[in-house]
Every structure is written in structure tokens, then in C-alpha cells.
Design goal:
CATH class of the largest domain: Alpha Beta
Strand order of the largest sheet: 3-2-1-4-5-6-7-8
Order of helices and strands: EHEHEHEHEHHEHHEEEHHEH
Helix content: 40-55%
Strand content: 15-25%
Number of helices: 11
Shape: globular
Structural class: alpha/beta
Number of strands: 10
Bound molecules: 1,4-dihydronicotinamide adenine dinucleotide
CATH architecture of the largest domain: 3-Layer(aba) Sandwich
CATH topology of the largest domain: Rossmann fold
Length: 302
């Protein structure tokens, strides 16, 4: 038995894109705490091109085993339905179940909107957003049967707040929020909790966009503690979004400003009424968190 407060003895975790960067850090920490880990990685280039390689996943599996942990590699492409199915199959065949899925695999093809060709759009949306669907769906079925699951989706500050030249990536990453909101609701009665992490870490995705002295302070290991907590059986949150990097953690959420009523039951307001009230409509004073679409509809009807 490991001597940690948060133990993962008896738990089976899938970590996608675990051959490097953040995914590797998550896989190593979970394995250190007793989880059996499926180390998925396609082993492609930073932009997703190339034949792929088994080396990154194998290397992390060796690291885990070398430290006395249990892990198996998987080289499937998360962006395909077959790949997603096979990742869960790998977990079931090796360890009999799947308790945790960390959707982490990712690529970049940065271009401003006008320069983004459809294939660059699709490649990025497919790996991140379709990948999260393809991998989470078969695992969710198993989690539902076992009445236990922890799912992590990976967003990005580029999507939450915007970043020039990353339309495809930002759209894919913020699509995670819609997926999370629904998985959190659909998983609630099965003790399946889904949360989203927007990390900031030194990796091959960031090596040329941040200076080396900053990267030094942003090792992936600084993000792992939050992800490990959210994957644990002690996690009570579901449907939450967090930013994490260099030991700093803060929550993000879509909030709603106060309702501004214009017109009345008999009179529809005009566009000029709206324009005249934009200061009030833009206000986020006493902003509220809404936790599902019914609450949003009620706010509109109030
Ligand atoms: P990384 O490039 O070091 O690791 C990503 C891994 O995913 C690679 O090993 C790659 O081979 C694998 N991968 C790519 N496409 C795949 C596919 N189709 N199937 C299976 N594996 C695949 O990058 P990093 O930085 O560790 O990124 C991890 C996640 O965090 C990504 O989703 C990224 O978008 C996200 N992220 C990272 C940030 C950072 O500051 N490093 C910032 C915001 C988000």
C-alpha cells in the first residue's frame, strides 16, 4: 500500500497523450499513488502529422514499471471512434475496468482565421473535441455500470479568454465546457464526476511561445496535483473549470449578469431600447452562477 492520503489503489486510469508533457506527469503521479494506468499516446508530431510512434507511450510505461507501478501502453488515435473504443478495451483487458479518464492528448495548428484551411480546422477539432467524445463515451458506459467515474477534460486559456491565431484550438478547447456541463449532469446519479482543467505548463506545445526562464517555473508537475485530486474518490466537484500552472490554481465559470427587463407582456422592446440599456445589460454586478439550462431559462422568464 502506498502511504498517501489520496490513494488510487484498485483504481484504473486512462491518460491520453501520456507519452510526454502534462499527460506523462499525470500518469506518473497516479501510478505512484497506486493506480493502474493505460498510457495512451499516438506519438505523432506537435501538429499531429507523421506516422506516429510507440516510443513515447512505451517510455512512460517503462518509467512507471521501473518505479514499481503498473501500466500498459496504448497507441491509438483518440480522434477516431475505433481508437476510443480500443483505449477502453485496453483498460478492460489489462485491468478489468476503467475508473478515470484524463482527456489530455492534443495538437496545435496555429493560424489566424482567414489562413486556417478546413483540414487545419478539422485536425485540431478532431483530436481535442472529437477525441474527448471518442475516448469518454466507451469509458462512460463502463463507469455507469460500476457507478463510479472521474473524467477530466482539458481546456485552455486560449479558448476561455482568446488568443490571436488559435481559432481552431480555442473553439475545440472551449467545446470541452459544453461537453463537461452535460457529462456532469448525465453522470451525477452514477457518481461520475467530470471537470475541466486549463493548464499552463512547459512542454513542446509551449516551448516556442514562452521564454525559457518562465518555462522553468512551469513544469507539468505543478498542474498534476489538481488533476490528481479531481480524479480521486474524495473529489466532490463536478462541472467545474480550473486554471492551473506553476503552483497557482483558480476557478473559472460562466456567470450571468442581472436580468434587465425591457418592454412588458404586451409590448416587445425595440432595438433602440436595447441600445439605450446596454450599460445595464453588460453589467456583471452580483453575477450569478447557473448550473443547468433550466436555471438559464428560468432567469429569462423571471
Ligand atoms: P505535448 O505535446 O507535450 O503532449 C501531448 C501529447 O498528446 C503528445 O505526446 C502527443 O503525441 C499526444 N497526441 C497528440 N495527438 C494525439 C492523438 N490523436 N491520439 C493520441 N495521442 C495524441 O503537450 P502538452 O502541453 O503536455 O499538452 C497536453 C494537453 O494540455 C493538450 O490537450 C494541450 O492542448 C493542453 N494545454 C497545454 C497547455 C500548456 O501550457 N502546455 C496550455 C493549455 C492547454
Amino acid at each position: 500500500m502506498t502511504d498517501f492520503g489520496l490513494t488510487f489503489e484498485g483504481r484504473v486510469a486512462v491518460v491520453t497523450g501520456a507519452g510526454a508533457g502534462l499527460g506523462r506527469a499525470y500518469a506518473l503521479e497516479l501510478a505512484k499513488r497506486g493506480a493502474k494506468v493505460v498510457v495512451n499516446d499516438l506519438g505523432g508530431a506537435r501538429d499531429g502529422s507523421g506516422e506516429g510512434s510507440s516510443l513515447p507511450a512505451d517510455k512512460v510505461v517503462d518509467e512507471i514499471k521501473g518505479a514499481g507501478g503498473e501500466a500498459v501502453p496504448n497507441y491509438d488515435n483518440v480522434a477516431t471512434a475505433d481508437g476510443g473504443e480500443n483505449i477502453t478495451k485496453t483498460a478492460l483487458e489489462a485491468f478489468g475496468k476503467v475508473d478515470i479518464v484524463i482527456n489530455n492528448a492534443g495538437i496545435l495548428r496555429d493560424k489566424s482565421l482567414v489562413k486556417t484551411e478546413p483540414e487545419e480546422w478539422d485536425a485540431v477539432i478532431n483530436v481535442h473535441l472529437r477525441g474527448a467524445y471518442c475516448v469518454s463515451r466507451p469509458a462512460f458506459k463502463v463507469m455507469r455500470e460500476n457507478k463510479y467515474g472521474r473524467i477530466i477534460l482539458t481546456a485552455s486559456a486560449a479558448g476561455l479568454y482568446g488568443n490571436f491565431g488559435q481559432a481552431n484550438y480555442a473553439a475545440a478547447k472551449t467545446g470541452m465546457l459544453g461537453l463537461m456541463n452535460v457529462l456532469a449532469l448525465e453522470g451525477a446519479k452514477y457518481n461520475i464526476k467530470t471537470n475541466t482543467v486549463a493548464p499552463g505548463a512547459a512542454s513542446r506545445l509551449t516551448e516556442d511561445v514562452m521564454p525559457p526562464e518562465i518555462l522553468e517555473k512551469m513544469k507539468p508537475e505543478y498542474v498534476a496535483p489538481l488533476v490528481v485530486y479531481l480524479c480521486s474518490d474524495k473529489c466532490e466537484e463536478s462541472g467545474f473549470i480550473y486554471n492551473a500552472g506553476s503552483g497557482n490554481f483558480f476557478r473559472a465559470h460562466i456567470v450571468n449578469g442581472p436580468v434587465v427587463k425591457l418592454g412588458d407582456d404586451k409590448t416587445i422592446c425595440t432595438a433602440e431600447d436595447v441600445m439605450a440599456n446596454m450599460d445595464r445589460i453588460n453589467s456583471l454586478e452580483n453575477a450569478k452562477l447557473l448550473s443547468n439550462v433550466q436555471e438559464a431559462v428560468m432567469a429569462l422568464l423571471s
